[in-house]
Design brief:
By secondary structure, this protein is mainly alpha-helical. It is about 85% helix and about 0% strand. The chain is built from three helices and no strands. Helix 1 runs antiparallel to helix 2. The termini are far apart. It has a domain of about 60 residues.
Length: about 90
């Protein structure tokens, strides 16, 4: 454990930020699961809605350095291909 006051504060801040980042990643995963379920059930409109939400959340996560930009591009490309193939 750190002895310096500023180091103790940084540890606390890091813990809080880690929880926030985890929740954002989990939210993206949840929307992705819902998207896949909509594709599986041939509900194209719901899948489009989820794809827009995923795109928005991924771009926000990318802007905050939670997710790497290449992963965002790869994820969106794959999901868009899934949607196009389902049509």
């Amino acid at each position: 454990m750190a002895n310096i006051k500023s180091a103790i504060k940084r540890i606390d801040i890091t813990k809080k930020q880690t929880e926030i980042n985890k929740s954002k990643k989990t939210e993206i995963k949840t929307y992705t699961k819902k998207f896949n379920e909509a594709i599986k059930n041939n509900d194209i409109e719901a899948a489009r809605k989820y794809l827009r939400a995923i795109d928005s959340k991924l771009k926000k996560a990318e802007a905050n350095n939670i997710v790497h930009k290449n992963k965002v591009a790869r994820k969106m490309s794959g999901l868009t291909k899934q949607l196009n193939n389902a049509m």
